[in-house]
């Protein structure tokens, strides 16, 4: 009984239990590993599972309650009216090219020209 009581208290406080996180590619390499390491260091009984994928597939899993929450790019508003969204950070995106690439000599370039 004492063990059961202790386990229930740990679950109520969030010290143990299971959480499944849906994570997009950028999060798998950046903030998520550090966040998981910190969570486990303070709550060693916590079990964390990761479901990786691209945003729309992760949102489908969230709607089907296959994951507890998702960390990903901010969803388009028309696709997220049924979701609570909280912006955690912004990610700077850039283009990386080899030295000497014709685009490396330009001070700026429009997205359309870049895509062409």
> From the coordinates shown, what is the CATH architecture?
3-Layer(aba) Sandwich
Strand content: 15-25%
Q: Name the helicity range.
A: 25-40%
Radius of gyration from the alpha-carbon trace, in angstroms: 20 Å
**Order of strands across the main sheet:** 2-1-3
- The tally of domains stands at 1
Q: In CATH, what is the homologous superfamily?
A: Periplasmic binding protein-like II
Order of helices and strands: HEHHEHEH
- What oligomeric state is this? single chain
Gap from first CA to last CA: 68 Å
Describe the protein.
The chain has one domain: Periplasmic binding protein-like II (D-Maltodextrin-Binding Protein, domain 2, 3-Layer(aba) Sandwich). 37% of the residues lie in helices and 16% in strands. It has 5 helices and 3 strands. It has helices at residues 2-13, 25-29, 31-42, 55-63, 111-115, and strands spanning 16-23, 45-52, 69-71. A 3-stranded parallel sheet has the order 2-1-3, sandwiched between helices. The longest helix is centred in the first third of the chain and has 12 residues, at 2-13. It starts with a helix and ends with a helix. The model has no long low-confidence stretch (mean pLDDT 83).
Summarize this structure briefly:
With 116 residues, the chain is an alpha/beta fold. It has a single domain (2-115), classed as 3-Layer(aba) Sandwich (D-Maltodextrin-Binding Protein, domain 2).
């Amino acid at each position: 009984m004492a063990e059961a009581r202790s386990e229930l208290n740990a679950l109520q406080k969030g010290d143990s239990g299971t959480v499944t996180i849906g994570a997009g590619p950028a999060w798998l390499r950046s903030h998520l590993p550090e966040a998981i390491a910190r969570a486990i260091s303070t709550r060693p009984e916590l079990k964390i599972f990761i479901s990786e994928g691209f945003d729309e597939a992760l949102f489908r899993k969230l709607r089907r309650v296959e994951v507890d929450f998702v960390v990903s790019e901010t969803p388009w508003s028309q696709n997220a009216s049924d979701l609570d969204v909280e912006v955690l950070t912004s990610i700077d995106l850039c283009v990386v090219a080899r030295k000497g690439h014709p685009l490396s000599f330009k001070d700026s370039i429009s997205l359309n020209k870049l895509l062409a």
